[in-house]
């Protein structure tokens, strides 16, 4: 009987070892001598030995051809690096051993992200989806607010990379491939590619879109330890719990800037009326043209004015003050992408409803890319 139990234990240990994943991908969280700990996104931490015979290579972010990978010593691995680990199936029983490690250096990822941000800013255009023509692959956007508003045409082809934000996520890296018919009117969208001189058309190499929620309301309560606040939505009259993550942009409009924005946004609604008056017999066309120019120069563009508003922390917000924000979709709980305080004068300006929605994706390939 004792011999049978011993055999059963040995067999059980062999079975458990066989069930360990042969390969996994994650971030290096600890290096202790020759022992490495890698935490995966799905099944937690894996600890293993890296023998001198293990093959260790470094590859650039986004690169899939391993023939370009560069051999590096174990000493160049650092906490924070991403790693694809292949375990040795013939290693002795006990601590698993690595047969091969393909590493992406954290510094390389940061450099690529910086280059991507610059490319999105230089070759990108974005706004709110007005319509989608599946037959031609064209998407119409509205961008900007007030007198600076314009229509943009996005041209896509079969080679255009189309991505969509994951549900409840504001991270560009979490965006997943999605077909053109997943894009709907009212979505936020940003594209990068070859654009024309006035920024009204772009032949897109890549498009990222998502459905988000615009909320205007007053703060009911603030819970700093949990990084949340409750806002009473002025539209639905219901409370909404707002989660403030590390990627959220929080800003406060100074009183003068808020008043100026409100005047410009209100003036943009009056422009058609002034233009009609100037076209009538005896109308002053010159004055009418000047009246419609407020906001077209850089100093008055609502998007640029928002970008100059001072950044704040959650602790700077106060119960009872008004805020405007763009968030993930949700009825009772959402995650903030952009939140702006000091907006009381804007709440009465009709053109302010899409102000943040246009601006929040204006800096890069998504909400977080603008950081």
List keywords for this structure.
21% helix, 7-stranded mixed β-sheet, 20 strands, alpha+beta, disordered N terminus, 371 residues, 5-stranded mixed beta barrel, single chain
Task: Describe the structure in your own words.
The protein is α+β, with helices and mostly antiparallel strands. The protein is 21% helix and 35% strand. The protein is built from 6 helices and 20 strands. The protein has helices spanning 2-19, 106-123, 255-279, 285-291, 302-307, 355-359; strands at 23-32, 35-40, 44-49, 55-58, 70-71, 82-87, 98-104, 124-133, 138-143, 150-155, 161-164, 176-177, 188-195, 201-210, 212-223, 228-233, 239-243, 249-252, 322-328, 333-341. Strands 3-2-1-6-7-4-5 form a 7-stranded mixed beta sheet. Strands 8-9-10-14-13 form a 5-stranded mixed barrel. A hairpin with a 4-residue loop joins β19 and β20. α3 (255-279) packs antiparallel against α4.
- The overall pLDDT, averaged over residues, is 80
N-to-C span = 66 Å
Sheet with the most strands, sense and barrel status: 7 strands, mixed
Strand content: 35-45%
Radius of gyration: 27 Å
What is the strand arrangement across the widest sheet? 3-2-1-6-7-4-5
The low-confidence runs, each spanning 5 or more residues with pLDDT under 50, are: 1-19, 270-299, 362-371
Alpha-beta content class? alpha+beta
- The percent of residues in helical segments reads 10-25%
Oligomer: single chain
DSSP summary, beta strand count: 20
Global outline = globular
The SSE order reads HEEEEEEEHEEEEEEEEEEEHHHEEH
The number of helical runs is: 6
């Amino acid at each position: 009987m004792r011999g049978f139990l011993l055999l059963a234990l040995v067999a059980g240990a062999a079975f458990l070892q066989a069930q360990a994943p042969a390969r996994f991908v994650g971030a290096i969280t600890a290096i202790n001598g020759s022992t490495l700990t890698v935490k995966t996104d799905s099944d937690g931490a894996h600890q293993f030995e890296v023998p001198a015979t293990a093959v260790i290579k470094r590859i650039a972010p986004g690169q899939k051809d391993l023939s370009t990978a560069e051999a590096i010593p174990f000493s160049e691995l650092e906490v924070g690096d991403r790693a694809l680990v292949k375990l040795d199936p013939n290693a002795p029983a006990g601590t698993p051993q690595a047969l091969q490690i393909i590493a992406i250096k954290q510094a390389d990822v940061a450099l690529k992200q910086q280059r991507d941000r610059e490319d999105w800013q230089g070759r990108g255009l974005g706004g709110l989806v007005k319509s989608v023509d599946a037959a031609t692959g064209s998407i119409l956007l509205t961008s900007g607010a007030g007198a600076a508003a314009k229509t943009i045409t996005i041209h896509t082809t079969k080679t255009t990379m189309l991505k969509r934000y994951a549900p409840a996520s504001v991270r560009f890296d979490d965006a997943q491939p999605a077909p053109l018919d997943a894009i709907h009117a009212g979505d936020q969208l940003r594209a990068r590619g070859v654009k024309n001189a006035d920024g009204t058309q772009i032949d897109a190499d890549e498009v990222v879109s998502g459905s988000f929620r615009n909320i205007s309301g007053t703060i009911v309560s603030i819970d700093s330890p949990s990084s949340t606040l409750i806002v009473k939505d002025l539209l639905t009259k219901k409370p909404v719990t707002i989660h403030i993550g590390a990627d959220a942009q929080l800003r406060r409009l100074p009183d003068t800037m808020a008043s100026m924005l409100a005047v410009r946004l209100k003036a943009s609604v009056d422009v058609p009326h002034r233009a009609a008056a100037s076209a009538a017999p005896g109308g002053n066309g010159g004055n009418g043209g000047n009246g419609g120019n407020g906001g077209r120069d850089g100093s008055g563009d609502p998007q640029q004015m928002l970008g100059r508003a001072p950044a704040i922390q959650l602790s700077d917000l106060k119960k009872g003050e008004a805020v405007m924000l763009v968030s993930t979709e949700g009825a009772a709980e959402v995650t903030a992408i952009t939140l702006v305080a000091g907006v009381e004068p804007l709440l009465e300006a009709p053109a302010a409803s899409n102000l943040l929605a246009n601006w929040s994706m204006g800096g890069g390939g998504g909400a977080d890319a603008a950081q």
